[in-house]
């Protein structure tokens, strides 16, 4: 079942109302996990960085040995066509997906030429502007390239994230701050992380154990344009505890202030507010507003 409401599904060349059935029991993606997806957002008539999300899902497909069946630009056109039927004031989660249909003679390796494609549009509201979150630690870590496809946005990675969230909830927290294989801070179970200390903005160095997100890159570019560059660094959990501000960066809600990490409390501060303000200013600017008719 879709986690949003008012769903539309693109599959086999056309749009369908509702959460359409697209995968068979014997599809490679169903039983061996060869599925990838990406997530973009539509709100207030714009879909920020939509092309970048479509480019990334094609890259993710190639990492899982699948052959993309749409160019990123074709995918953008398909998505804008689907959005025409939704209210212009709707907040929509945009999810393009690929998965393997057949396997090779071993059954384990997907047949790259049998790749299936779909797009799901789900109305899902953005979090309220004053929404915050709390984090704890988890014993589960981000994997490395030698043991998992961490260079793709692959469905098979998410059961590990689910374990992180379940453990955090059992401790009374909604989310977890996660370590990489070396024990340093990587990201949360659902989003990238930024901290502010003495006016400087820092984020974990992109070391290949987590996806350095598209929204993360947009915040970094906006900060640089505003005269406040971000420094990527190896960060420890003690660094996080000593931060002045802490916020999550992700496609789903863009900027989420963190108000507690395992008993250490934070206040949403001026840098976090400025990052949010700059993101919305950029997203709603004429340069980021393609026409629904295009």
Written overview of the protein:
This protein is of the alpha+beta class and 294 residues long. The chain is built from seven helices and 15 strands. It has helices at 28-32, 50-63, 72-83, 158-170, 214-225, 237-241, 270-283; strands spanning 5-11, 14-17, 35-37, 40-42, 92-99, 116-123, 133-137, 175-179, 185-188, 192-197, 200-204, 230-233, 245-250, 254-261, 264-265. Strands 7, 8, 9, 10, 11, 12, 13, 14 and 15 form a nine-stranded mixed sheet that branches. Strands 1, 2, 3, 4, 5 and 6 form a six-stranded antiparallel sheet that branches. α2 packs across α3 and α5 (214-225) crosses α7 (270-283).
Brief digest:
This protein is α+β, with helices and mostly antiparallel strands.
Radius of gyration: 19 Å
Main pleated-sheet profile: 9 strands, mixed
The percentage of residues in β strands lies in: 25-35%
Helix content: 25-40%
Shape: globular
End-to-end span in angstroms?
A: 31 Å
Unreliable segments of 5+ consecutive residues: none
Structural category is alpha+beta
């Amino acid at each position: 079942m879709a986690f949003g409401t008012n769903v539309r599904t693109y599959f086999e060349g056309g749009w369908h109302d509702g959460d359409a059935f697209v995968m068979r029991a014997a599809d490679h993606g169903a039983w061996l996990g060869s599925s990838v997806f990406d997530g973009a957002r539509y709100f207030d008539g714009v879909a920020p960085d939509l092309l970048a999300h479509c480019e990334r899902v094609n890259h993710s497909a190639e990492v899982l040995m699948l052959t993309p069946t749409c160019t990123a630009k074709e995918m953008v056109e398909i998505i804008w066509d689907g959005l025409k039927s939704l209210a212009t004031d709707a907040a929509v989660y945009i999810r393009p997906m690929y998965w393997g249909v057949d396997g090779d003679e071993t059954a384990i390796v997907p047949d790259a030429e049998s790749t299936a494609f779909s797009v799901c549009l789900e109305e899902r509201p953005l979090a309220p502007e004053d929404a915050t979150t709390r984090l704890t630690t988890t014993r589960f870590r981000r994997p490395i390239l030698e043991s998992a496809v961490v260079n793709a946005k692959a469905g098979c990675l998410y059961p590990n994230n689910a374990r992180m969230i379940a453990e955090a909830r059992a401790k009374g927290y909604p989310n977890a701050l996660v370590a990489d294989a070396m024990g340093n801070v990587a990201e949360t179970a659902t989003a990238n992380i930024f901290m502010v200390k003495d006016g400087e903005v820092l984020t974990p160095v992109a070391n290949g154990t987590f996806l350095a997100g598209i929204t993360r890159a947009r915040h970094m570019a906006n900060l640089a344009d505003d005269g406040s560059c971000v420094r990527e660094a190896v960060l420890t959990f003690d660094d996080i505890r000593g931060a002045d501000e802490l916020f999550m960066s992700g496609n789903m809600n863009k900027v989420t202030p963190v108000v507690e990490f395992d008993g250490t409390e934070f206040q949403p501060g001026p840098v976090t507010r400025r990052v949010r303000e700059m993101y919305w200013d950029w997203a709603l600017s004429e340069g980021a507003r393609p026409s629904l008719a295009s």
